[in-house]
Amino acid sequence: MNYNNFLLSFVLKRSFILFCWVVLFFSCSKEKTSLETIHVDFGKSLDKAYLSDFIDPDFQLIALETTPKSLIGRISKVVTTEDYIFVLDSYSTNSLFVFDKTGKFLWKIGKEGDGPGEYHKLLDFIIADDKVEILDNGYFIKTYKFDGEFVNNKKLPEFSAIKMAKNKKGGFVFISGKRLDNLLLTNKNLKIENSYFPFVNPYLDKMIINPFIQTGNGSILYRRFLNDTLYQILEDRIIPVKHIDYANKAFHIDIEKAKNLGEKIKTEFYDYCTTRFYYENKTHEYLVFLYKGEPWIHLSSKQRNASKLYKYSNRINDVFFDNTAYVVGTEDDQFIYLLQPSSFKESLDTTKDSDSPYFDKMTAFAKKLDNTDNPVLMFVKFDLTQ
User: 341-349 and 359-366 are packed helices; what angle lies between their axes, rounded to 10 degrees?
Assistant: First the structure.
C-alpha cells in the first residue's frame, strides 16, 4: 500500500469512528431527553380521598376457589393471561397455583421435591411464549407448559438470582443473589451481556418486592431501593425513562457515604420520600411511597394531565371498605387489588350507616366467603376525570 492509499484509509477509518461516536452521542442524548416525570405535588394532596370518586364502578371481584389442594398462605405475585390467573405463594406453601378467570382452581405448576420437573424453592416466575418459567432456588430456571407439563431445566452458569424477567427478544434479566452487580442482563443462553449497579452494602442493595414492572405496552421497567428513577430494560442495555419528582422532599444518597452507614442510613431518609411500590398499566401509574413514616398514594393518568395524591390514613374506602387491601398486579387497563376475606368481612361488619352505592353489593359478596377462604382479587379501573 502506498502512502496516499494509506493516508486515505487512515482518514476514512477515523471518520467512521467519529461518525459512530456522534451517532452514539445523539442516541444517548435522545434517550435522556425523553425522560418522563411523575410530579408529586404535596400542595394538591387531598384531605379526604373517597375511592368512589376515582374508581370506575364496573369493577370485578374474583374469589379464588378454596380447596385442600389450593390453600394459599401469602400471595407474592399475580400474573394473568387471557385464560388463566397464576398465583405465586413463595412464602408459605412454596407453590404456583393456576386458576381460570372465574377463580376456579385448576392445578399447580410442578411440585416441591428432587425428582424430574420438581423444584426446591420458588423465588419468581414469568410467562413467555405460552410457557411458565420459574426461578428455582436462585440457580435454576425450570420451564413448564400452562397445563403443568414439565419441559426443561436450565442452570444459571455463573451467578445466582432472586428475581427475574424477560425482554422481548427472549433474553433474561435478573436481580443478582450475591454481591455482584444488582442487575444482570443475559442472552437466551444465560450468558451475561451487561450488568449495572455494583454492590454497595446489604441495606442499600436489599431486595424490593417488585423491582420489575410489566407495563401496558409489554415493556419492562426496573427500579431500585432509594432510587427515584425508573429504567426501561432493552435487549442489551437499560435506559432511564421516568423520574419520580418529590421536589424538596426527595432523598439524595451519597454512595460513598452509604458504604459505611449500613442500616444507619434509615435514620437519614425518614424526613424524605422513599418509593415503596410502583405499578403501571396501559392507562395509569400507581405509586406508593413513605414520608415521615406514613404511606402515601399517588395516582396519575398516562392519557391526560390528571393525578390524585393522598395520605393513606386520609383514604375513605367507600368501594370495597377494607383498608388493608393492596395492589398486587395489573391487567391491561386494570389494577388488581388483593382482599383477605377475614379483614374484608370485618370491615363491612363494622361499617355503620353507609350511604355508599357499593355497600349492599360488597356485603352480599362477602356473605359467600368464610374467614379462612383464599384471597379475593378485585380488578379495578381508575377514572381521574372528576
Answer: 130
